[in-house]
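Interim report to the steering committee. The following record documents the input for Sugar/nucleoside kinase (Ribokinase family) (305 residues).
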Amino acid sequence: MTVATVGVHIVDILARPIDHIPEGQDTVLVEQIRLTAAGAAAGTAVDLVKLGNSVITMGAAGDDELGDFLVAVLAKRGVDVSRLVRRAGEQTAASILPIRPDGGRPSFHVPGANLSVTYADLDPDVLRGVRAIHLGGMDVTFGLGDPAFFALLDEVRASGTVITMDLLSEMPDLLGMARAFLPHVDYVLPNEAQALLMTGASDVGEAARALLADGPRGVLVTLGAAGSLVVTPEGAEAVPALKVDVSDTTGCGDAYCAGFLTGLLHGQDVLTAARWGTAAAARVATGLGSDAGLIDLDSTLRTLG
């Protein structure tokens, strides 16, 4: 395997377009409904495979029907699920996402088995053998905030493994705990709200610099339609978003992470890799669901012009 994704695994049930929730037992006809493998580990894993990487994923799902679907669709997309733990008696994490006509995505969510993930669920030997590890949703899989896991991350980083981290929630207490991972990762990729909540800063640049001071090599704050801000010890640079017809913003952050990490694995510098992430996010925004619109690396890079 080239990459291991570790953390949050979710089944998304999406419908669009939804401009209101009907009252009582009324029915609203929609254009499209999809079920997808999503979450900051599972969704990113699917996108990484589409961009040409071989990927194994680690975390937990329930032993329910949603878990069966999640495992099946990940395997169908080419993700190695042999280290994805199935929890007896627990529910697989899931979200219901009514997508607004402008691509916005309110959600109804059950965290399920993600909350029970611990270091004991991971395979350290596999993690020692990959070129990159993506930590997806360490604010929710808070059981991974384990000194033994931190020691493993330090060990593999010292051997040249690249470690990236994305977040899931916008809950200050959980995000605050996730800061403990920052000395042990290379790049952290929060969205604007997460960066501000993690640090209490008054603006994105200040927040990114505060996170950078915790120890990573770079902080990339995604800003939605405004693009992203890349902050390293060498300075800060804005990377503009690409103009596309937005159908659904679900999974754009996961796609950005997948594109960015793919760029790094292809030897690109941080800013170029951020542009690869921008292109992947733009592709996903054109369809419904966390993997929609993303086909392969070549077509993704052509989005950059």
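Residues 270-285 form the longest helix (16 residues). The committee is asked to note this result when reviewing the revised timeline.
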